[in-house]
TrEMBL record:
Protein name per its UniProtKB record: Peptidase
Keywords: Signal
Organism expressing this protein natively: Duganella callida
Segment forming the signal sequence: 1-20
Length: 221
């Protein structure tokens, strides 16, 4: 559950880019993810609030999503966070907005799972061996991260197919340093989508991601 010590921002107003409340970095990230947020808010009617941490805490990631009081909370933790853009360090400047867009799509994937009431749920009939409470929590988190990664890739394939290879390679690079059993070790799923052809099925980006995600469940580490 998210803490309430957030500075609330208006969602997708025309003035947000020029708002004195926003830093230059926050403005760039919101602009890069604006098409994803518009889709989520206007077409899907997802209950999303954008919040900004007045001061990032130790180990905060720049962009995260939580769920509180029936609403998704897209949280920017960039103020006082010297490593906020480290994830983009190896990305050419011209491509950084695209990677940020993919990260926002990833978080919308989380929001979709929350709002559909399937958070930490698996498909009906899927069998899984019982594990310790800690191991199950790790596994459940990894599965959700994998689903969100696939939503991001499905989004890129739909909106920027010519850039799919670059984004997919970057995502694999980001995920590879994690330990094999880590909560963000989603490479087993990412390897199932080396090209955009993995998302050739009909349906929304969530449906397309789900098709690949189910395959990954059968061979997860």
């Amino acid at each position: 559950m998210l803490k309430r010590a957030f500075l609330p921002l208006l969602l997708l107003t025309s003035a947000y880019a020029a708002s004195a409340e926003l830093t230059e970095m926050e403005t760039r990230w919101l602009q890069a993810g604006s098409s994803v947020l518009a889709y989520a808010k206007q077409e899907l009617k997802l209950p999303i609030d954008i919040t900004v941490q007045p001061q990032a805490r130790a180990n905060d990631v720049p962009l995260a999503l939580g769920y509180q009081d029936g609403r998704c909370k897209l949280v920017l933790s960039m103020r006082g966070n010297p490593s906020a853009e480290d994830i983009l360090a190896d990305v050419p400047s011209a491509q950084r907005p695209l990677m940020i867009e993919a990260m926002v799509a990833h978080e919308i994937g989380h929001c979709w799972r929350y709002t559909q009431g399937v958070w930490h749920a698996v498909p009906a009939g899927f069998e899984q061996a019982p594990q310790s409470e800690q191991a199950e929590a790790l596994r459940d988190t990894r599965r959700e991260e994998a689903y969100a990664d696939l939503v991001a890739l499905a989004w890129i394939q739909q909106r920027h197919p010519e850039q799919y290879t670059n984004v997919a390679a970057w995502m694999r690079h980001v995920r590879e340093p994690s330990p094999a059993a880590g909560s963000h070790s989603t490479v087993a799923w990412l390897q199932l989508a080396p090209t955009g052809a993995a998302f050739a099925s009909a349906g929304s980006v969530f449906d397309q991601a789900n098709t690949v995600w189910r395959k990954g469940l059968m061979q997860e580490p």
